[in-house]
Prior knowledge:
Elements (H helix, E strand, L loop, with lengths): L3 H7 L5 H6 L2 E6 L2 E6 L14 H17 L7 E11 L8 E10 L3 E9 L5 E12 L8
Antiparallel strand pairs: 1-2, 2-4, 3-6, 4-5, 5-6
Amino acid sequence: MPNPLAEQWLNGNEAGIAKLIGFRLTRLDADHSLVEFEPGPQHANPMGTLHGGVLCDIADAAMGMAWIAGLAEGESFTTVEMKINFLRPVWGGKLTAEGKVIRRGRTLGYAECEIRDEAGRLVAKTSCTCMTLRGEQAAGR
């Protein structure tokens, strides 16, 4: 894998947000990733279901890691835009977020993520636009 960020995640050196929320990267291939997450009571909204922002976080991580897997050494990226559709409530159980790069241009591209529950039911569908950063834009990221 050419990008050291991807290698760090696979070796258990997750980003701070992954540790805070409790999700983990379980698979990473070119333009594809799997993120697993098991919500607890600390992730609930006032109605007792999983807070939608947590679903956004794990989807963003899955799509971002799929994007990172295709970056060259010294490149970084940022998410320019993200959309999510919430399709069913979640009260508990393991979730899997599958991120896929659909189109990778030189600078901009498009990725999607499906989040499924333990029964394989679609919980949320997301998409994002990513921008690859190079040179000074990537410095310090």
